[in-house]
Amino acid sequence: MVSAAAPALIRRFGGFAASLVFSTAVNLLAIPFVISTLGKEVWGELALAQATAAIFGIVVAFGWGTVGAALVASLPVEKRPQMYVESLVSRGYLLLFTAPVMFAVMLLITKADPFVAALASVAYVFPFVGASWFFIGQAKPWRLFLFDVLPQGIGTIAGLVLIQFIPNPIVFVISLLVFNLLAVVSGAVGVLAQAGRRLETDLRIGPAMKRLKDQKHGVIAAGTGSLNSNLPMLVVNQVVNGALPQYALADKLFRFAVAGFGPILQVIQGWIPEAGPAKSLHRIGTVAKLAPATGLMAGGLLAALTPWASTLFSGGAIAISFSLSIPFGIILAGVLVAQIVGLACLIPLGQGAALATSTAVGAALNVPLMLVLGLLLGAPGVAWAVGLAELVVAGYQLMVVRKCLHNRTEFETAHAQD
Asked: How far apart are CA 233 and CA 241, in angstroms?
């Protein structure tokens, strides 16, 4: 049985890895091309817009992007498309409410042209209405690649080609906007095409908003987690504006590392619940034990390689020292442990509230700490604040998982003796 399951897991990992390799290659390629064509300051502004969109995107995704994959995996196959349709309607309304607010914020915090800011506010938020989490929960990596990752990647490639002829950020952002919209539409088509029955589509705003209450733990976890990872860019922009390109590139390399771990996390998310309740606890325990070593190894590699990678991918325009790369390595270690334990372990244990609490505790520590350390130490201080907060989040989640496993083991032992 194990020998039969192993090839399936390997094929699944390979499918998710294809999305990772493609999107990472495209985004790495974009860095030197945008910097050399539009300048590092414009690239920094676009990176800031993307970070801002990641914060506002949490409102649009409203928890489905965080816990949606685990929820899909636990639902009967025939009920999954209906869940997606209901989420799509709710997220569509949230997009309409959120994009104008992000545009207003962009006008306040950036020097970007208002038209560029408006287009970027929609383009960068669009992916949060997509179906990526649904395909992950289904363990359908090639649907994820074809309907979601590929259109977004083509949009970036098209934008890079176009700015070689028309070196204007508006051209790049329009390309992203068109293809990110295409990704949302194609994702919906990919989900609906597999629905075996007629789906109920209620477009009324009242029911759409009422559905949000069931996502409260997911959106709290996602929102506070997003603040921990994306608010620092905004703080650097305000406190040490001159360091924005360096911090933005370090942050971008960190996100590539997180994305690189994505296929493993996606396999784990599907692997734990598919064993059934009896074996799931054992799998959760195994994953939780391996998580800290995984985070430590990945963080060490990022800290060591970032100075070299920054020079390579910016064409020598941006250099990052160990003073910034080391705290980013700590951030990566904490984030990976929190992703493994929080998304793959806490959700199957029914501990969505603990997931939300852990990220809220991290945000409560991170926000004041990065303001203080940012003023004292500059961009590295902001990164150290984020790293410490992420370690607290990961430690709290590990504690909850171990406590849950201990309590359930004791319960099962006592029940067996009775």
From this structure: 10
pLDDT over 50 (residue 2): no
Range with the lowest mean pLDDT among 245-249, 267-271, 346-350, 358-362?
267-271
In angstroms, the CA 105 to CA 54 distance is 13
The pLDDT value given to residue 285? 84
Residues in the chain: 418
- Segment 87-140, tens digit of pLDDT: 899 999 999 999 999 999 888 887 778 888 889 889 999 999 999 888 888 878
Nearest-angstrom CA–CA distance, 224 and 342: 13
Give the mean pLDDT of the chain: 84
Q: Which residues form the domain of 322?
A: 2-417
**Three-state secondary structure string covering the chain:** CHHHHHHHHHHHHHHHHHHHHHHHHHHHHHHHHHHHHHCHHHHHHHHHHHHHHHHHHHHHHCCHHHHHHHHHHHCCHHHHHHHHHHHHHHHHHHHHHHHHHHHHHHHHHCCCCHHHHHHHHHHCCHHHHCCHHHHHHCCCHHHHHHHHHHHHHHHHHHHHHHHHHCCCHHHHHHHHHHHHHHHHHHHHHHHHCCCCCCCCCCCCHHHHHHHHHHHHHHHHHHHHHHHHHHHHHHHHHHHCHHHHHHHHHHHHHHHHHHHHHHHHHHHHHHHHHHCCHHHHHHHHHHHHHHHHHHHHHHHHHHHHHHHHHHHHHCCCCCCCCHHHHHHHHHHHHHHHHHHHHHHHHHCCCCCHHHHHHHHHHHHHHHHHHHHHHHHHHCHHHHHHHHHHHHHHHHHHHHHHHHHHHHHHHHHHHHHHHC
The domain tally of the chain equals: 1
Specify burial of residue 417 (Cβ count, 10 A radius: 0-12, 13-18, 19+). Answer: exposed
CB 195 within 8 A of CB 81: yes
Confidence of residue 399 (pLDDT cuts 50, 70, 90): very high
pLDDT at 3 over 60: no
Query: When comparing pLDDT for 268 and 371, which is higher?
Result: 371
Residues 205 and 343 sit within 8 Å (Cβ to Cβ): no
Q: Which range among 1-10, 195-204, 247-256 has the greatest average pLDDT?
A: 247-256
